[in-house]
Amino acid sequence: MTATIVSLRNVSRGFAGGVLALRDVSLEIGRGELVAIVGPSGSGKSTMLNIIGTLDRASAGTVEIDGLAVENLKDSQLSALRARHIGFVFQHFHLSPGVSALDNVADGLLYTGTGLRERRERAEAALCEVGLAHRLDHRPHQLSGGEKQRTAIARALARRPLLLLADEPTGALDSTSGEGVVQLLLGLHRAGTAVVVITHDRDLAARFDRQAAMRDGQLVEDTRRSIR
What we know:
The protein has helices spanning 45-52, 75-85, 101-107, 116-129, 145-157, 175-190, 202-205; strands at 4-15, 19-30, 34-38, 60-65, 68-69, 86-90, 163-167, 194-198, 210-215, 218-224. The protein is an alpha/beta fold.
């Protein structure tokens, strides 16, 4: 078992027209680390998060997740890796309309090979853990923004991930709801999950152990500090 959960070595990602979204990025993230990826719009933050989450493949360089070389994995193997080890939290929640909070979370376990009964049990436990025991049967339109984001975190939490990736998780929330989400992410970190968050919020990033700053597709600064 490796102590490194994410390893990017000289990673670039190009798109049509010669656009390079990432340029020769090298970054290692250890198990249980708490990392903020910061930078202006268009700096390559989301592209890097997608590559770390195996939602996209690098054009050059090597990517390893929990010691597995991503470039050697088939799409089906990448899907299994995501399902078993990586949780995702997005700014706009990505919840299925007309489906209860319980089933939104349980459906996140569909590709883990877990049976329906256990999926629903794990979903209920995760929703209780984020303070939504009273919202199990509520559909997204019946939830506040903070409750929707906590449902999205429960969906990631139910996977018991080694790595959680969050893209502007507080960006669509008021300050009170946003602080609740931050506390949940910090709790996951304390429980041993590596948490990587994209944020424009410098105050939020300053609370993290480590900040990786992006500009023009390059990693321009990587600093560690204590939040204790």
